[in-house]
Inverse folding.
C-alpha cells in the first residue's frame, strides 16, 4: 500500500517566523504538487516539482523535491497572516498519473 | 479565463434522498475529477471523466456516480444519502498536458453537502 504522509498536522506561528512542512512516501513519485486551501474554497495549485533535487521558489515560498523523489518540503520565510491555510501535497507515483493527497498541514500565522 | 464553477455551493438533504451536483470546467479542459473532502478522511478521489468517458475511479460505493457531457460539463450524483456523505465535494479540471507524470488540478470552490 502506497502512503503519502504530511507533517506536522498543525502549525501555529507568529508573523515573521519561518516554517517548514514535509511530505513523505515510501514509494517514488513521478511528480508532486503543492496546494493551499483557504476556508470555504477549493485548493489552489502552488507548484509542481518533477525532477529529483529540484528547488522552486515562489516569492517567500521555497519548494524542494528530494533527490530520490520520495519526499518534498515547503518552506515559508517570514510568514504573514495571509499565508494561513491548509497546505496539501499531492503525488503521482511512478506508473500512475492519478494524484493521491496528503492529509494536509493546517498553518495559522498570528499577527 | 473563467475558473471552475460548481453549483450549488450549499445543499442540505435528508437521509435517503438523492442529490446531483454540477461542475463547469475551465474552457478547453476536457478532464474533470471529483473529490470528497471530510475532516477525518481528507481529500479522497471519487472519479475522473475525460471526453465523456469515466477514465478512473476511486474506492467509493456505487451510490456515487457521475457523467460528463459533450461540452465537458460534469455532474455527480449520490443516491440514498447517508449521514456520512456530509462533506465538501470538490470538482477539478485539468488540461491534456501532463506536468511530469500527472495532471495539474484546478479546483472549483466546492459544494458543501449536509445530510440530516
Amino acid at each position: 500500500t502506497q502512503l503519502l504522509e504530511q507533517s506536522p498536522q498543525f502549525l501555529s506561528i507568529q508573523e515573521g517566523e519561518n516554517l517548514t512542512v514535509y511530505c513523505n512516501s515510501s514509494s517514488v513519485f513521478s511528480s508532486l504538487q503543492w496546494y493551499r486551501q483557504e476556508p470555504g474554497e477549493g485548493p489552489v495549485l502552488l507548484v509542481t516539482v518533477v525532477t529529483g533535487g529540484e528547488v522552486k521558489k515562489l516569492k517567500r515560498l521555497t519548494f524542494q523535491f528530494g533527490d530520490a523523489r520520495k519526499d518534498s518540503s515547503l518552506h515559508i520565510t517570514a510568514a504573514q497572516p495571509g499565508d494561513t491555510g491548509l497546505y496539501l501535497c499531492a503525488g503521482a507515483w511512478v506508473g500512475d498519473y492519478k494524484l493521491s493527497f496528503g492529509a494536509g498541514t493546517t498553518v495559522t500565522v498570528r499577527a | 479565463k473563467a475558473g471552475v464553477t460548481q453549483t450549488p455551493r450549499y445543499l442540505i438533504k435528508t437521509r435517503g434522498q438523492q442529490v446531483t451536483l454540477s461542475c463547469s470546467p475551465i474552457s478547453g479542459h476536457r478532464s474533470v475529477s471529483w473529490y470528497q473532502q471530510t475532516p477525518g478522511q481528507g481529500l479522497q478521489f471519487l472519479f475522473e471523466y475525460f471526453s465523456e468517458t469515466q477514465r478512473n475511479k476511486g474506492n467509493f460505493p456505487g451510490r456515487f456516480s457521475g457523467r460528463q457531457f459533450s461540452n465537458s460539463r460534469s455532474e455527480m450524483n449520490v443516491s440514498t444519502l447517508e449521514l456520512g456523505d456530509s462533506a465538501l465535494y470538490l470538482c477539478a479540471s485539468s488540461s491534456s498536458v501532463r506536468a511530469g507524470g500527472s495532471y495539474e488540478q484546478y479546483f472549483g470552490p466546492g459544494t458543501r453537502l449536509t445530510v440530516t
